[in-house]
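sry for the spam today, last one i promise. struct tokens for design, 269 residues
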């Protein structure tokens, strides 16, 4: 900025104050402090913190959303519904299975502050309008249990599947989604709000070498879009995803044996 970028952008000779204001405008548009630090200030961040990187999201941001009328023409649709009531909202994410491996986001629907009977009616209306939704996976943990049962009674357990959120199930769904984002088999809308929501999910490593996921909260969302998207892929998946873990060498491997041979003859002192 000091070397003339602000001048070129604003097409005039900028004062120091105008440069500062332009920098502040860009920083505010970025929103996330870690992204600002890494992408604009050249301060590398710990990659173990953010589960899905910003470049990965931008690369996948090529999906075109469709109205209900056009969704009826899709061959296979799969949905994910993350449940919320007051603090967080319920979020419906519908993906089209275009090929055996390619999923494209086609429809998004948010419900906030609605009583569960009203939520059930709204979701039921969408399911009735779209018989090509093969399966809808719902977070039935806690408050989602009742809504899941109501919809199962109306549409059957073959079409409505309840998913209990646990550390294991969440990791399996999250890693499946990241893998599909990485290989280009899951496309999402180019939407800053969605990107920010996905970035709320952070990963940490336990002492035993396992990955644990935690989600922050921003703008009344507890990564609701992230989990709705992951549930939609769960609905369309036929294979179980195994989460990675850090390899811990067993005490019987060759390296340990060689160390034992080297140390043989030394006293325990």
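last one done:
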């Amino acid at each position: 900025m000091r070397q003339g970028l602000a001048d070129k952008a604003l097409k005039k000779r900028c004062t120091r104050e105008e440069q500062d204001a332009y920098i502040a405008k860009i920083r505010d548009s970025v929103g996330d402090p870690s992204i600002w630090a890494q992408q604009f200030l050249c301060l590398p961040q710990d990659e173990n913190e953010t589960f899905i990187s910003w470049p990965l999201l931008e690369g996948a941001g090529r999906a075109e959303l469709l109205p209900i009328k056009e969704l009826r023409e899709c061959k296979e649709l799969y949905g994910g519904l993350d449940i919320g009531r007051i603090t967080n909202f319920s979020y419906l994410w519908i993906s089209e299975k275009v090929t055996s491996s390619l999923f494209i986001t086609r429809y998004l629907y948010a419900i906030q502050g609605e009583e569960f009977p009203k939520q059930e009616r709204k979701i039921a209306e969408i399911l009735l309008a779209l018989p090509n939704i093969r399966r809808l996976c719902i977070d039935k943990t806690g408050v989602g249990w009742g809504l899941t049962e109501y919809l199962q009674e109306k549409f059957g357990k073959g079409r409505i599947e309840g998913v209990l959120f646990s550390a294991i199930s969440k990791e399996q769904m999250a890693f499946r989604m990241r893998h599909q984002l990485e290989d280009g088999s899951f496309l999402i809308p180019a939407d800053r709000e969605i990107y920010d929501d996905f970035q709320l999910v952070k990963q940490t490593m336990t002492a035993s070498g396992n990955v644990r996921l935690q989600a922050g909260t921003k703008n009344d969302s507890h990564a609701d879009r992230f989990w709705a998207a992951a549930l939609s892929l769960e609905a369309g998946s036929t294979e179980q995803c195994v989460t990675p873990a850090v390899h811990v060498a067993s005490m019987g491997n060759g390296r340990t044996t060689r160390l034992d041979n080297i140390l043989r003859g030394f006293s325990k002192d």
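Confidence is low (pLDDT under 50) at residues 245-256. ok im logging off now
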